[in-house]
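Q: For a teaching handout, I want to show students what a protein-ligand complex looks like in token form. Below are the inputs, and the small molecule is L-homoserine. Please produce the holo structure.
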Amino acid sequence: MKRERKLLRVGMLGCGVVGAEVARLMVANQDDLAARSGAGLEIVKISVRDLSIPRPGIAAELFTTDSESIVNDPNIDLVIEVMGGIEPARHLILTAMKNGKAVVTANKALLAKHGAELFHASDEADVDFYYEAAVAGAIPILRPLAESLVGDRVERVMGIINGTTNYILTKMHEDGTSFEDALNEAQLLGYAEADPTADIESFDAAAKAAILAGLAFHTQVTDEDVYREGISKITSDDVAVAKEMGFVIKLLAIAEANEVHGSDEETITVRVHPTMIPKNHPLASVREAFNAVFVQCQSAGELMFYGRGAGGVPTASAILGDLVAVARNRIEGSLGPTETDYADLDIAPMGVTKTRYLIRLEVMDVPGVLASVAATFAMNDVSILTVRQDGRGADAELIVLTHIATEAALASTVDQLAKLHVVKDVLSVIRVEGVPV
Ligand code: HSE
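A: Here is the structure, written as tokens, with L-homoserine included.
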């Protein structure tokens, strides 16, 4: 005899580009979603700010402006939060959890600021809290870190986790487009917002990096712990030099474990900045608005996760995956894995990070320039790998690629270089990763 299928009622907070696709796909794929969940999944209420905006394909009677009525509705079992921002999303999620509802969210900014509070609240309330869509859109990366790789030891996570900036940098690299023109193009295509600050100054990527680092290293990491640089200072000249030297410039988020010299202790650093990588590195082939996350583990070795990091339909895929997972758990009376921050590693200051650097200097083209520049590197214990000089009349450009050095040593080198009489300008300093040692 066929058992009667249970029905789980879903409420959604927000109905923008992602929410509208979630609602549409829940209806279009309802039979498959029900068969996979073991329960019917019915979207019963959606809160929006403005009821007058047309949302074709979604039944008008589902909409309300009253989000509280969703998180306090005893008939709603699961809540999807896609409104974004910190408040009221934080308060609404906490209320939903207290009221025994499982929560699925795509809200990276909220997780990066208040993750610990939300994980604690879901533990206290014995409800599931899933957020795969918060980092890298459709790409399954959070559950692989939290579940598939949890038996391994992650050493490093390095990713392209902002599609807008990757689109801009791809245009600059492949078409020689200026930063401003590439940004305009990204805005016209709908990748970049009218105010592009969150993307181009790496706030978006820093929030995602904090979430990735927390899972990878079992440590509480917030967006404040992430060293952040944007791409707005990258010039066409930087891109041309990178290209000539066989590199590609990408905005990379890097979370890594650092050994503390002379002890068994480990710290982590988390950073987001423009980075040169060799053109044959797997991340170099990630073009346009695609994302990819490269994970290095002690036992699994190197893995790469690639796909669409944004957009309504791809992000809805991750949300529906979470929805089915929490529905299955609810039917079985179980809960998914909870966050572990047992390792509680210290987050080291950026100064201890070790990497390579490419420094472009505008110098006077006179005898002795190379000697004083080289001496400044040597004084700071920064070893030079290659130096290139491009002459330009009375001036010249020196392009110095270093061996691995600490950020602290590099910062002091750059300070002193800027004070040298023969150095007219420090044109740029870009970190270099992925060069075989
Ligand atoms: N603005 C983000 C990006 C969207 O460009 O990747 C997803 O967070």
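A: Two things your students might notice: The longest strand covers residues 247-259. The first helix runs from residue 17 to 28.
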